[in-house]
Amino acid sequence: MHAHDLLRPRPEGLYCPPGDFFIDPVRPVGRALITHGHSDHARSGHARVLATGQTLDIMALRYGDDFAGSTQAAGLGEAVRINGVTVSFHPAGHVLGSAQIAVEQDGFRIVASGDYKRAADPTCAGIELVPCDVFITEATFGLPVFRHPAPGEEIGRLLASLGRFPERAHLVGAYALGKAQRVIRLIRDAGYDETIHIHGALAKLCDYFQRQGVDLGRLEPATVDRPARGDFAGSIVVGPPSAFADRWARRFPDPVTAFASGWMQIRQRVKQRGVELPLILSDHCDWDELTTTIAETGASEVWVTHGREEALVRWCELQGIKARPLHLVGYEDEGD
Amino acid sequence: MKAFAELLDSLLLTPSRNAKLRLMVEYFGATPDPDRGLALAALTGNLSFASVKPAMLRALVMERMDPVLFAYSYDYVGDLAETISLVWEAGSEVAQRTEPTLAEAVGALGGTSRSDAPRILATLLDRMEPPSRFALIKLVTGGLRIGVSARLAKQALADLGGVDVHEIEEVWHGLAPPYLGLFAWLEGRAGKPAAVMPALFRPVMLSNPVQEGDLDRLDPEDYVAEWKWDGIRVQATGESGQRRLYSRTGDEISGAFPDLVEAIDFDGTLDGELLVGQPPEHVGSFSDLQQRLNRKAVSTKTLKDYPVFVRCYDLLAADGEDLRGLSFSERRLRLEVFAAGLDPARFDLSPLVGFDDWQHLDRLRLSPPHPVIEGVMLKRRDSVYVPGRPKGPWFKWKRDPHTIDAVLMYAQRGHGKRSSFYSDYTFGVWTGPSEAEELVPVGKAYFGFTDEELRQIDKFVRDNTVDRFGPVRSVRAAPDRGLVLEVAFEGLARSTRHKSGVAMRFPRISRLRWDKPPAEADRLDTLLALLPE
């Protein structure tokens, strides 16, 4: 069979004609399979949603309980039949609840990986490699310049800065779902036990992670009514990056602004954002991990989506692997 | 190498001066010799070795990777050194994986010929992580730009050793990388390095601005006045055949002024103002002088078109005698005699300005006889020459700055303490025919306002944003809606880089004109009329 008979791009997202469902559609559809809870992949308003239980929980937290007409939780590794097409969800290692979706018919298998990473992450299940005929990969950091350093070293630089500037609050920008909790967990792993202050936008998700067994230690809101000057001196404050450019950030004494993101690898990006302490910490694969994964899936064809498609397509060509860009629209890298 | 690379990156991203000092003090304290001394040399521009051209670097990386993938990468990153540092693939035969020290890297590259340099560079890069690769490539291509002056590095040394920065400046030019003796002294393990080299820098004496009420307490009889020339303050010194020209912070700038250095055929130390022109009549503007500043080499044509000379203010030493302990009056007499024997095309005497009382001097200050005068200096007759900025003996009393009313056009978020504020402002004035006037940007300012005013402008920017480009917001600026800023500046020069054709010197916000409708802000013609000639 032809791969594009099983899955093909449509304006709403990736569509499976025989199964009549979409994967991560960007507009409301009849049936949606969702890889993970980041808002560019998981949108509200679909009639029926199939996703992992954690992803469904996260969508409910973000959009309210009525985010879809009906929902069904997919167990990891369990086969589900939809109109004669077999689908199964497998851990993607991206954020809590994230999954790759394998779509199979007549022995032909396509894996839509959503967003994924290979690096260890104490806040979510590790990736499971799923052999397939066609592998759909993201390319957020799909350039040979992206080589993520070890997360422990990056956290080490944050703690070193805290020691160097004990009178300054350290504001760590980290996206609300996944990155924020991973940063906090890594800080704990580095032996830091003090209270960590969090922006209000993180509260519900951090609570949820704790309930799911991810121990984040003592967290307190950084949102106090009348802060006395110096209240946050020497403390770590985690919040969404946008908040640090906002008036909200003025309660902190002479802050060190840090940002935990894969983009922090590029100095120009760091300077543009006015970041003083870049922490190169990504929930996506770097170049080496992308290329390794493609090779390990054994796929004879690769479809490349959101990110720097052309470089990864070029790499596949050099390896003799058939590859093409998907040109799906509507995915921004909220997750990083 | 790793610690050095980390220091460079941190310095580059840290806006606060105090934080930069702390980073350097920590580095110098924690890094062993000779690495820290070599780092100091790199920071102060005293490290040199076989340079590697960008084309060679590119060739090196092309041997190891697909040119198409490199092109995508370079296109995305935009900086060659950074791209290479990230995409570099260590060869598989690399046995040694420990990062080389800075000393190892400098040593390996130091003794090589230009043709061997790329190969040696490659083996070094193989052993490094991306941040160190970036630092090394910047070093070998001579592109280390990190926003740290040599002066700031010396201040960090002073902080490390608990000594005054003048003590470092005095001995600095007698020292060489890796500065083992200097660090030994700063750490109390050895005595202060002797000022052995001839023609060392003597830290300069600075003045304080005249503040409200200052003059009421002073007797005009005790002071002499002279014009304050708008050039750069320098120290020209000759001793035992050595000739050197220093900036006021002790950086040696002899290389850029061979014409002047040639005329230092005396034994002594002069304090004066470096100006462009032919003394005494013809003195060029500051923008003429800029043709000669911040250059490593200087062409014959530039030397001819923009000759420099020193207008002498003071004499610190003559014929082996240190004069700094004498009073200003005594030094002035010595200076007049000394200057009379110098090449008149390269040195002349800054004239004293006679005055009866402060009111008289005020009138002279406000209407100086020459456009390159920016005010008057007051010096106590009995003042000895001491380094730094003591309060009392010397004052500067500047001509009032120019001001214009301009309209706020763009605002950019600041850094550090100001990262949540729109604190950098681009402002414009009106131009074009009266029925179709438009604003043209004429400058940028990010200080001059109080914290409270900053809050007010920030609110205005957030409430009146019409467009956003990354950290920059474009704000409403129409004849009937917008914010008028009174901008003060020291001078104006023609500029081909700006659409308006003018560039301001030292612009800052002097007042917020909430009361003034933007339509009544100044026109470009008003500014053009201020241009010299």
Chain-wise SSE layout:
The complex is a heterodimer of chains A (336) and B (533).
Chain A (H helix, E strand, L loop, with lengths): L2 H4 L1 E3 L2 E4 L4 E3 L7 E3 L12 E6 L1 H11 L4 E6 L5 E4 L2 E7 L7 E7 L2 E5 L21 E6 L11 H14 L5 E4 L5 H11 L6 E3 L4 H9 L7 E3 L14 E4 L1 H4 L11 E5 L6 H6 L4 E3 L7 H11 L3 E7 L1 H11 L2 E4 L11
Parallel strand pairs in A: 3-4, 4-5, 5-6, 10-11, 11-18, 12-15, 12-16, 13-14, 13-15, 16-17, 18-19
Antiparallel strand pairs in A: 1-2, 2-3, 7-8, 8-9, 9-10
Chain B lengths: L1 H12 L3 H14 L4 H9 L10 H9 L4 H11 L2 H8 L14 H9 L6 H10 L3 H12 L8 H12 L3 H8 L7 H7 L21 E2 L13 E7 L2 E8 L2 E6 L10 H5 L5 E11 L3 E2 L2 H5 L9 H6 L2 E11 L2 E2 L5 H13 L6 E3 L2 E2 L4 H9 L6 E8 L13 E5 L3 E12 L8 E10 L6 E8 L5 H13 L1 E5 L2 E4 L8 E6 L1 E4 L7 E4 L2 E6 L10 H5 L5
Parallel strand pairs in B: 1-12, 7-9
Antiparallel strand pairs in B: 2-10, 2-11, 3-4, 3-5, 5-6, 5-7, 7-8, 11-12, 13-14, 13-17, 13-18, 14-15, 16-17, 18-21, 19-20
Helix pairs in contact in B: 1-2, 1-9, 2-10, 4-6, 5-6, 6-9, 10-11
The helix content of chain A, as a percent range, equals 10-25%
The DSSP helix count of chain A reads 9
Helix content of chain B: 25-40%
Shape of chain A: globular
Low-confidence runs of at least 5 consecutive residues of chain B = none
Strand content of chain B: 15-25%
Architecture of the largest domain in chain A in CATH?
4-Layer Sandwich
Tell me the radius of gyration of chain B.
Answer: 27 Å
CATH fold group of one domain in chain B: D-amino Acid Aminotransferase, Chain A, domain 1
Q: From N to C, what is the helix and strand string of chain A?
A: HEEEEEHEEEEEEHEHEHEEHEHEHEHE
Number of separate strands of chain B: 21
